[in-house]
Design brief:
Radius of gyration of chain A: 27 Å
Number of helices of chain B: 5
Structural class of chain B: alpha+beta
Largest interface: A-B, 61 and 54 residues
Distance between the termini of chain A: 61 Å
Distance between the termini of chain B: 54 Å
Shape of chain B: elongated
Largest sheet of chain A: 7 strands, mixed
Helix content of chain B: 25-40%
Oligomer: heterodimer
Radius of gyration of chain B: 16 Å
Shape of chain A: globular
Strand content of chain A: 15-25%
């Protein structure tokens, strides 16, 4: 292997370092207008009057749009419940009510302030408890009439939507004969994705054709959403991609794009740029949802789990973004990692009068894993077992059956991961150190996770120069799948240099469908499409030169920019010669391929509601952490952090290392600092000054171990990498702090006040 | 209130007419001089993406009045081409010190300023220098590894 397993310099690195990389944020088009959105100041209410006449008459104002400008359509990925602008009802603080485009941003700001809006505030439900209380006001009284996509049936009872119940036999019997029932709850907070490039877009909408310039994680979905909002054929919508200044799930749904589009149309097709300022971006980001998880386990005297119940409620906010399947992760994670009897899983999304939540890296797995691993520590305390020994004795084994009936034949990797962590960070030694060091604690946790299987498409074209253009609907959110991994895959197959491969900016007019930069999928799924396309290109070249080299197609090898007769290595041609010759022979030297992870046949289970149908490409990981607690300030310092990540096959070790470092930092942020707190529907944190993301002084150098168990359905065996390393982090930190202070915690983040309160309670 | 403004930026003096009295240095750099390499992340001095050097010292240009920058030497990420900056840029690229890249120009100028005044910083000194910059992608480790390589304190390891 020449390129697989190597870490060539990213071709975009120098441009990014020196500020030459082009983000949509930097885009200026002649004649471009600047936009601002008027948003709801209240969590619930009715629009009594909306008068835009003064704003329209102001100097420099080119367009003002509201719900009245239509069309009166709704949009949505799963449940079609979201209007472009609030019409009559407003459902959250920050909901768009009107938008203005003007010659300057200043003029747009002044005009927005001149819109006369009269809202009659109504009763709001802004917490899970308020929304689920008997007789609670309904966020969507008409929810039952909303259409769904993909033929999904999304049940709705009051404010509870997208429920799931998995209820196998034997749960009640096990609880009846339990030695003890152990119960734990944990509440998770909202986490802002915190990408450094706030959301922005430039749109040009003329003659029923819409062009959008944007750095978006899922251009194919964005196109469909815009088509819904404007009742437009998807073919009339073209997305031009740019370097993306971070995403982490926050740029998977629509953001500023449809508002810029509506304004452009109203302004006669002038380009309109809409940039969310940071407070606005933070206030309406489809952040990680706040959540409540309850676990109950029936255990025997040895601590074996005879049966378990998991209940999870996720705050959906006012409209459903990409969350419909999130509650069903409870059915997977509730019984993950360690052997456990039958699992009853109940989950649901809750409509509230708050900003809509959505995907953030690791989605609901983060809080579910924190709940599970906290619960396991609790069981260990009750039965007096060492926390690592208990886990290792009860790891799920090959043949483990998921709640959807899928058999995992590689679950033994979990044991390998525990052993690899042990070799680096010996548990007994760490425990001994923690015992003699005041207020030090250790934690260990695992996760089994999957890779989003959605399809990807790659088209390759080799030019007479021997260089290859790679056209795809996938994007690079910064994690490097296009900058590095997919180029390496193609280079390996064709025996050319990674630096001979160009990836032009995304353009949906030229590229195929792609499932988006989510769920760790790009390198694995779109990467496999790239490998297949490269194989086809390779056979076109081979056919063109085989007879000249006196070899059959199968006897040719491709390496170092040459095609060589493996039997007679002196017989060889350069790729450039071969490319020219292939053209003469009538080969297009263009190849394309599509790939999606094939579904796994599963046996039906006794489930009702929405359940993620299968667990594509399972991966297994273990994390270990050591913390010190400052008894005066309550601050927590992460002294040591070890990750063992299973990657299938490492395509680019440096980028994998980078994914793990960054994910652990975000996980520490979730465990200790970051929280978007709601007070009566308003966020307390409204700026980056208040919203505390980890800085260089907060984060340790993470020690990384990678395991390789090649996947059947990934290029060269690669499995997705991006999501798993954030998932166990809050679990590890929570358990380590609990170990240090002597009691556990029921909500994240664990603040200095929480730590001090625990120390006070535990004081002798 | 608008007035004339002469800035000495990246070694060139440029005079602009009609610059608002309260214009920030960031807006002048991005929107009047069209130097888009200096990024805007928060406009409140929290994220450091807009950092430039004023007389060699890192400054959040989003909080700095453009007129106050007259008579001072301003350097932006795009202009740093000396041997030290080039070594640092190469090391950042080699170690994976940039992912999405939006924070990177700000971090780059901060690190150039650090290395100019301290050729041999410790890891802790590098972390402290970065305390005004948010990077959401990297967890900072590979950025720090790059600096330590330039200063030959290769204590850190990167895959």
């Amino acid at each position: 292997m020449t390129w697989i397993g190597s870490s060539p310099v990213r071709p975009d690195a120098d441009d990014k370092i020196r500020g030459r990389a082009m983000y949509a944020f930097d885009l200026a088009i002649d004649g471009m207008l600047f936009a601002r959105v008027l948003r709801s100041p209240v969590p619930a209410g009715r629009i009594v009057s909306l008068d835009t006449r003064r704003a329209r008459a102001m100097p420099g104002v080119r367009a003002v749009v509201t719900a009245a400008d239509g069309p009166a359509t709704l949009a949505g990925e799963f449940l079609i419940d979201t209007p472009l602008f609030a019409h009559e009802s407003v459902r959250y603080v920050g909901e768009p009510i009107a938008a203005v485009a003007a010659d300057t941003l200043e003029a747009a700001n002044i005009a927005v302030a001149a819109i006369a809006l009269d809202i009659a505030s109504g009763p709001a439900v802004t917490t899970l408890d308020e929304a689920l209380a008997p007789g609670a006001p309904l966020v969507h009284p008409d929810a039952a009439t909303y259409a769904t996509q993909y033929g999904l049936i999304i049940r709705c009872e009051g404010n509870l939507v997208a429920q799931l119940l998995v209820d196998p036999d034997g749960v009640n019997q096990a609880f009846a004969k339990a030695y003890q029932v152990v119960e734990d709850t944990i509440e998770g907070q909202r986490q802002y994705q915190g990408y450094l490039e706030s959301r922005n877009a430039v749109a040009t909408f003329t003659d029923e054709r819409l062009e959008v310039h944007v750095g978006h994680q899922h251009s194919s979905a964005l196109r469909e959403r815009l088509a819904q909002f404007f009742a437009l054929d998807v073919e009339r919508i073209r997305i031009h991609g740019y370097t993306i200044g971070g995403g982490f799930g926050g740029k998977l749904e629509f953001g500023p794009e449809p508002y810029a589009a509506a304004l452009s149309r109203a302004a006669g097709g002038r380009p309109v740029k809409l940039v969310f300022d940071r407070g606005e971006d933070l206030g309406i980001a489809t952040c990680r949802e706040n959540s409540r998880v309850r676990l109950r386990s029936a255990i025997d005297r040895a601590g074996n789990v005879l049966a378990r119940e998991i209940d999870v409620l996720l705050d959906n906010g006012a409209y459903m973004m990409d969350q419909a399947l999130s509650p069903s992760l409870a059915a997977y994670i509730g019984a993950a990692n360690y052997q456990c009897g039958p699992l009853r899983a109940r989950g649901g999304l809750v409509y509230t009068n708050t900003p809509p939540t959505g995907a953030m890296r690791g989605v609901t797995g983060v809080i579910l894993t924190a709940a599970l691993e906290k619960h396991v520590d609790h069981i260990c305390r009750i039965v007096g077992r060492d926390r690592r020994a208990y886990r290792v004795e009860r790891l799920v084994q090959d043949g483990y059956v998921t709640p959807s009936g899928q058999v995992l034949d590689d679950a033994h990797i979990l044991a390998d991961a525990f052993a690899a962590v042990e070799a680096k960070a010996n548990w007994a030694e760490a425990r001994a150190r923690a015992r003699v060091t005041p207020l030090r604690g250790i934690g260990i946790a695992a996760v089994m996770w999957c890779v989003n299987p959605s399809p990807g498409h790659v088209k390759l074209r080799m030019n007479a120069s021997g260089r290859v253009e790679l056209v795809t609907g996938a994007n690079d959110n910064g994690s490097g799948p296009l900058a590095t991994a997919i180029r390496q895959i193609v280079a390996e197959v064709l025996g050319i240099s990674v630096f001979s491969i160009d990836v032009p900016a995304l353009d949906t007019a030229a590229s195929g469908y792609d499932g988006g930069s989510q769920g760790s999928r790009t390198t694995q799924v779109t990467g496999e499409a790239a490998r297949c396309a490269a194989l086809e290109l390779r056979s076109q070249l081979a056919r063109a030169v085989a007879s000249q080299l006196g070899a059959s197609v199968e006897q040719l090898t491709f390496s170092e920019n040459q095609i060589v007769n493996a039997e007679q290595p002196l017989k060889r041609v350069t790729i450039i010669e071969a490319a020219r010759q292939a053209r003469v022979c009538g080969a297009s030297l263009t190849a394309e391929a599509t790939f999606a992870t094939p579904p796994v046949a599963c046996t039906p289970v006794s489930a009702s509601g929405l359940l993620i149908p299968f667990f594509p490409t399972p991966t297994y990981h273990v994390h270990f952490g050591e913390v010190d607690v400052d008894p005066v300030t309550g601050n927590v310092y992460v002294r040591r952090y070890v990750v063992c990540q299973e990657v299938g096959r490492a395509i680019n070790p440096r980028e994998i290392y980078g994914q793990i470092q960054g994910a652990v930092a975000q996980g520490i942020g979730y465990a200790l600092y970051e929280s978007l707190r709601l007070r009566e529907g308003h966020y307390v944190e409204q700026s980056l000054e208040a919203y505390r993301m980890p800085l260089a002084l907060d984060i340790p150098r993470v020690e990384v171990i990678t395991l390789e168990h090649p996947a059947m359905d990934g290029p060269f065996g690669a499995k997705g990498v991006g999501e798993p390393p954030i998932i166990p982090v809050p679990a590890v930190i929570l358990n380590a702090i609990a170990d240090a202070v002597g009691e556990s915690f029921e909500r994240l983040p664990i603040t200095p006040q929480d730590v001090l309160a625990a120390l006070y309670r535990q004081a002798p | 209130m608008s007035q004339k403004l002469t800035l000495r930026i990246n070694g060139h003096a440029t005079t602009l007419l009609d610059v608002a009295a309260d214009a920030t240095l960031l807006d002048v750099i991005r929107d009047r001089l069209h130097l888009k390499g200096t990024k805007e992340g928060c406009r409140e001095g929290e994220c450091g993406a807009c950092t430039v050097l004023i007389d060699g010292a890192p400054v959040d240009s989003c909080l700095f009045n453009a007129h106050s920058a007259q008579e001072h030497d301003i350097e932006t990420a795009d202009s740093l081409k000396d041997v030290l900056a080039n070594e640092l840029a190469a090391a950042l690229a080699k170690h994976g010190g940039t992912q999405c890249g939006f924070c990177t120009p700000g971090i780059f100028v901060v690190l150039v300023a650090l290395l100019r005044r301290n050729a041999d910083p410790t890891e802790q000194e590098v972390r402290r220098a970065l305390d005004g910059n948010i990077c959401r992608c990297t967890g900072y480790t590979q950025i720090i590894d790059a600096v330590l390589q330039v200063t030959d304190r290769s204590a850190g390891r990167s895959a």
